[in-house]
Amino acid sequence: MSSKTPVRVDGRDLVLTNLGKVLYPEAGFTKAEVIDYYSRIAAVLLPHLAGRPLTAKRYPNGVDGAFFFEKNAPSHVPGWLRRATLPVPGSTMDRDTIDFAIVDDLPSLVYYANLAALELHVPQWRVAPDGTAQPPDTLVFDLDPGAPATIVECCRVALALREVLAADGLTARPKTSGSKGMQLYAPWDGRQEPSVYAKELAQRLEKADPALVVSVMAKKARPGKVFIDWSQNNPAKTTIAPYSLRARPYPTVSTPLTWEEVEECGHPGDLVFTAADVLARMQEHGDLFARA
């Protein structure tokens, strides 16, 4: 039997359910704690979700249970939660459009946390107030280590990427994926098609250090190397949002980093941060991704 808890969040009425359900069994981390984390991190998280169509990865029975990606806003979504109907050419569901949710405010974020949307994924572009898709405003490189490579090797690649981006006048910002790799973001000025630019840089780094870097997706090419996934810049793709939880055994978070942390990383455990760690980091640093 589900338990229901009515709450009022910034003037919006919500009903939270099953707050005692454990969503991260190894950590004993409950749905109430998931909602609490998202509520407390909202000040730095929401700017990275605002205006971006949400793809939620939901785990109704916790990280050990079945999950599903949800792009279409649920039929029971409150009328006040912002939505945008956007074309999705080539949809695997044979849909011409999807009614996306846009999580712009705290009530919307709490609503999705209550749905056990542990992971929040967004594209590199935003939706204008009139509901139309805008050009990409962010460039992203997803650095994926092939075992036995780890995030330590990703940091070496991130430092090399930072240099080539800086030479092109772009300021890179690093974050962990919250899983085994990391991502680099840079504000994008539309100088060319972002996937083309990102692929060129990935290939350039692969040529400079083929023992460490690979730019092709083939799994057989990746053991011991770091795959620079430039294809994340395709407008149809999404990347885990800064400050989103991940569905790992423990409630790890995709965590913005300082470049000093990247430079000093010597062990994979150096860059693993849980929800509690990230809340403490927010108190110390604010939003590292808000800095130029």
From TrEMBL:
GO terms for molecular function: DNA ligase (ATP) activity. Residues 30-289 form the DNA ligase D polymerase domain. Keywords: Ligase. The lineage of its organism: Bacteria, Bacillati, Actinomycetota, Actinomycetes, Streptosporangiales. The keyword Ligase applies. CDD domains: MtLigD_Pol_like. NCBIfam families: ligD_pol. Its EC number is 6.5.1.1. Transmembrane segments: none annotated. The gene is ligD. This is Non-homologous end-joining DNA ligase. It is an enzyme of class 6 (ligase). It comes from the Bacteria.
